[in-house]
Amino acid sequence: MKINFNDVVPIYIQIADAIEDDILTGHLGAGENCYSQIQLAKELNINPATAAKGIRVLVDRGVLEKVRGQAMVVREDAVEIIRQRKLEQMLSEMVENLVREAQKLEISEEVLIGKISQVYQKK
Amino acid sequence: MEEFAVSIEGLKKTYRSHVALDGITVNLNKNQIIGLIGANGSGKTTLMKICTGLEGADSGRIRMFGEDARTMIIGGEMIYTMHDLPVGRGYGISEIIRFYKIAYTDFDENFCKKLLELFEIPLKKSCSALSQGMKSAVHFSCAMATRCRLTLFDEPFIGMDIAKRKLAYEVLLRDYMEHPRTILLSSHNLLEIEGLLSEMLLIHKGKLVFYQDMDDVREMLFRVDGKEEEISGFVEKEDTIYMEKKEIESFAILRGSVESDLAAQALKRGLTVSAVTPEDVSVYLTMTKERKGTEDLWEC
User: Which own/partner pairs from B278-283 qualify as long-range (CB within 8 Å, at least 24 positions apart)?
Assistant: First the structure.
């Protein structure tokens, strides 16, 4: 886990993303306890409030849930939720980049959509 | 229970004709590590000294944990250190430790000695024989070991080499987690310490610029780079903090985050959008509009 303070991505989002990676690679399994706020703060040398925010992001994304009082646990369907969110995010980013480049080249919407259909038809 | 660690109301301080503090009003939250940031002469040290009672204010008031500031000082519940603290001149380090033991009831002598060992400072030495970095390490170690519920550090890392600074950052953060308390910390090296901080207090020319959560500071401003005429469409907006026009590529600093609608518009126009670090936020928000460039230094 590595935090980049110069990154455009906020630190708490970087923490959330790093934990998601550990879930995807199986380092953190479904039903297991997630790293605690204090563990993250110690390991990454960041303020515990920032670490807590990272964990909260994962609760909001539906990856973690609070059970048995205090512990944050990886949800059973966490991998599926992460994949789904990443796919959506990636897809919209790719499309946005594509449209931006097309606009630079003054390619109209119809032409661009036509191109995409062409590629589909070739397959 | 009192809500705030420090409540400052309309604080003013003038030295002869120089206005050091120009009516600061702010409430500092409890159990946070707060960065006190500002350029040279912005009033950081004056603010801390008034908190500790070393200086009196001309007007305004300070309360700590709901109490009069003097109660905190007498009770040994507050510690203030600065890099050229006169305490220690001509004294040995062990004598300084003895002084802290008398003055601060919760002083953890064992922890202090372990810290000094970590910073490789021999206890037998006299303070006057120490380099600036070592002096800083002595004051830092002693102050940490008091575990005061209000800890004020004025440039505590000055003179330390990078390895020692990193050690100090780790010690500060770990000990804060073991013994949560309110720590106000001034430094000119915001880039290095920003991860430690939960909040930031920016002052400029004796006035409060902002007191904000660190993550909000990271999303306070963004930067767009591009050709001057492309940026010009944006710079008329009142969100513009700063604009630098250059021959090849210009840039502007705008209010908002990289995720804002304005940033999305900039992207659409083919401009490059990037985040502004807290360090740069402190620079751009305290810059005088008519700031002179360096270019005319080389003109005849």
Answer: B278/B190, B278/B194, B278/B200, B278/B214, B278/B217, B278/B218, B279/B190, B279/B191, B279/B194, B280/B221, B280/B253, B281/B202, B281/B217, B281/B220, B281/B221, B282/B37, B282/B38, B282/B190, B282/B200, B282/B202
Q: Which residues 13-32 of chain B have a CB within 8 Å of chain A?
A: 32
Helix (H, G, I), strand (E, B) or coil at B181: coil
Contact state of A47 with B214 under an 8 Å Cβ cutoff:
yes
Q: Contact B298/B222 with Cβ under 8 angstroms?
A: no
Tell me the CATH number of domain B4-216, given options 3.30.360.10, 1.10.560.10, 2.170.150.20, 3.40.50.300: 3.40.50.300
A53 chain-B contacts, CB cut-off 8 A: 215
For the domain spanning B217-298, the CATH number is: 3.30.70
pLDDT digits (tens, 9 = 90+) for B180-207: 999 999 999 999 999 999 999 999 999 9
* Binary contact (B32, A11; C-beta < 8 A): no
Token look-up 């097309």 returns A102
pLDDT digits (tens, 9 = 90+) for B104-130: 989 999 999 999 999 999 888 888 888
- Residues in chain B with CB shorter than 8 Å from the CB of A38 are 177
Distance between CA atoms of B140 and B235, rounded to whole angstroms? 45
- Partner-chain residue, chosen from B194, B215, B219, that has the shortest CB–CB distance to A53: B215
In chain B, what are the domain boundaries?
A: 4-216, 217-298
Partners of residue A8 in chain B, C-beta under 8 Å: 258, 274-275
ipTM of the complex: 0.75
